[in-house]
Amino acid sequence: MTEHCARCGAALPIVDGDTAAFCAVCGLPQLRVASEAVIPVAPASGDVEPEKRIDHPRLDWGTGLRMVAVVAAVGAIAPSLLPGAVSTGSAGGLSLLAMPLLTVAAVTLYHRSRPRREISPVIGGRLGATLGLMVGAWIAFLTGAVGFTLRYHYHSTAMDNALQQGFDSMMVRMQEAGPQPPELIGFIRSPEFLAGSFLMGHVFSILLLVMTGTVCGWLAGALLRSRRQRLTQ
């Protein structure tokens, strides 16, 4: 096959059975490199794209908060729909009993929505603690909303009566234990003490929900991680 000069396009003559190294018209050297002489050059370490990790050790808070918010709404609103659950203060107790199931549901939903993310006891504990905090906030909001509606819209004192009955029973037990100073009795019966006790009760309930969610989330994360390790082996 006749080759041509890269500059002038003239046909290159054949010299000793091979194409001439110089163009006979313009004198341009005709450089050719054999394919065997090409040495592959490895790219620098900085040019190599890092492999995509399948497991991300950090918690995806965006997805986690969405999953936890849905489960918390279900776990707080469902017990509140029972007759008298909010007015008597039993909604928080029912949510506390359901916390193990709610935490497992939240951690499982997060793991299934982000299968490439790492699941661990620490991540499960964080999700469980957040779930307990959200459930406690829902219970406090629903209790306040129901109490406000009963008091100022329906002019009902159902929640006040339930709270007063609890304090009356406490006063009876205190008097059975022995005579109490009148100042202490007056302080316990004051509206400030009643309101403070009501708020402290909610704070204590939220702490119990957070602690229960943390423990159950830690266990759920450990179980899901061990299951994932068995499946990948």
Determine the mean pLDDT.
78
- Sequence stretches where pLDDT stays below 50 over 5 or more residues: none
- The run of helices and strands is EEHHHHHH
User: Number of helical runs?
Assistant: 6
Oligomer designation: single chain
Distance between the termini: 59 Å
How many DSSP-defined strands?
Answer: 2
Question: How much is the radius of gyration in Å?
Answer: 38 Å
Residues in β-strands, percent = under 5%
Query: How would you characterize the largest beta sheet?
Result: 2 strands, antiparallel
Structural class by sheet pairing and helices: mainly alpha
Order of strands side by side in the largest beta sheet? 1-2
Shape: rod-shaped
The overall number of domains is 2
Percentage of residues assigned to helices: 55-70%
Keywords: Membrane, Transmembrane, Transmembrane helix
Transmembrane segments: 63-82, 88-110, 131-154, 199-224
